[in-house]
Here is the input.
Amino acid sequence: TDEYGFIVLCVNSGSYGNKCKYPLGQNTIADNPGDVDVAIVKGTVPSATNVIVDIYGVPGEPAFGYNTFVNGRVNRREDPENPTFDFANWDIESGSTTSANTDPGCWNGIGDCDVPNVLSLKLIITEIVDPSDGPQNRFVELFSPDKKNYIIPFRQPQGIQDRRVWLHRALCEQC
Here is the structure.
């Protein structure tokens, strides 16, 4: 995490300068086209004993107009993490958001914003972006209110080719 508790996972670090510490490339969790679910899960993948800590979307169900953000973004309101998707927890913008209108590393006044605020390792999904100016500018932002300046050891487990799976494992080794 950064000094405010954020982890910004992006497709391309060049799009957001020093705000992206984890450029993951295409076909990763950061490369969300605006209609894919995102979850933080404790446990191993796959397993029937996994515990969902936080989620955006409903696994196994197609994204509907009310929860898609193609060429836009979703931004969590000030609600805590929620293991069940609740549309009311999110502000959704779709259709016309460019990367210049996003704010990786800043959420509701916390982080690299105008007025940083220190809070009391929980992770919650705070922003998912699919801006209209290209997939290279997509990112997923997570926030930890109680663990700052934490470095996540990213190492791809042997035999796992899907980076979305091993990213989940890297994040949740620390959960």
Summary: Residues 163-172 form the longest helix (10 residues). The two ends are 13 Å apart (CA to CA). The longest strand covers residues 124-130.
